[in-house]
Specification:
With about 230 residues, the chain is an alpha/beta fold. It folds into two domains: about 90 residues, Translation factors (Elongation Factor Tu (Ef-tu), domain 3, Beta Barrel), CATH 2.40.30.10; about 120 residues, 3-Layer(aba) Sandwich (Rossmann fold). The protein is built from six helices and twelve strands. The strands form two sheets. Strands 4-3-6-1-2-5 form a six-stranded antiparallel β-sheet. The chain has a six-stranded parallel β-sheet with strand order 10-9-8-7-11-12, with helices on both faces. It is globular, with a radius of gyration of 18 Å. The model has no long low-confidence stretch (mean pLDDT about 90).
């Protein structure tokens, strides 16, 4: 696969620990919302590889955006948060199993943390092209760490067939609390057999899959990247 040079053209903070990056490519590419690209970062003379998911749709063939959470003990994320406009990185052809499979069935996007990045892209596409009901279920530790809240509030207001639900694990508030996967059967009509797209920390993905299977959801209607079982 070919690699591309990408130039950072804009960067902004969307939570205290997450930045949103807009890059411009030296060529054109296409991808399915939900897929990711692998960044090759030159850190102290060594190549460090990190996968990040595009948060935009692929209408603009030579621009893409990613959201990256900074971990104080991280390598790639710390380097990414130190980038300035005009800096360049190398990125691979987009790939990944996480993309919309069906536009006529109801869909459930189930995520935690930066697992929201593929979900927001797939949600945007489904609201444009899909014909069913969409559920966006996201788990976070605190209210301030939730991603894309302004956009999701607007989308929720604009679309009667969208249901946005949050759950917090480390903060008491007026909404749902605990692990987001524990609320699935309270929110979603499982009988309608929607497709489930799951992304987040491996332990959550594994736990969510196990619960969905117990609820009678077919294995082929649960879509994730597929590597989480080995990392949990």
């Amino acid at each position: 696969m070919d690699d591309y040079e990408a130039t950072l053209v804009d960067v902004s903070s969307i939570t205290p620990t997450v930045k949103h990056f807009l890059f411009e490519l030296d060529g054109d590419w296409s991808f399915s919302p939900g897929q990711h690209t692998v960044f090759t970062l030159d850190i102290d003379g060594e190549d460090v590889h990190r996968p990040y998911t595009m948060t935009n749709l692929s209408r603009d063939k030579n621009r893409f955006s990613v959201a990256v959470k900074r971990y104080d003990d991280g390598t790639g994320s710390v380097h990414m948060h130190g980038l300035d406009r005009g800096d360049t990185v190398s990125v691979s052809e987009p790939k990944g199993n996480l993309h919309l499979q069906n536009y006529t069935r109801d869909v459930v996007f189930l995520s935690t943390g930066t697992g929201a990045t593929p979900m927001i892209a797939m949600l945007r596409e489904y609201l444009e092209r899909g014909s069913g009901t969409a559920y966006y279920l996201h788990g976070e530790k605190t209210t301030e760490s939730r991603l894309f809240t302004s956009e999701l509030t607007l989308l929720d207001a604009e679309h009667n067939d969208l249901n946005v639900v949050y759950s917090l694990s480390d903060e008491s508030w007026q909404g749902r609390e605990g692990f987001i996967q524990d609320h699935v059967d309270d929110v979603v009509d499982v009988v309608n057999e929607p497709d489930y797209y799951v992304c987040g920390v491996p332990q959550m993905v594994v736990a969510a899959k196990e619960k969905l299977l117990r609820l009678g959801v077919s294995d082929d209607q649960i879509i994730s990247e597929g590597w989480e079982e080995d990392a949990a």
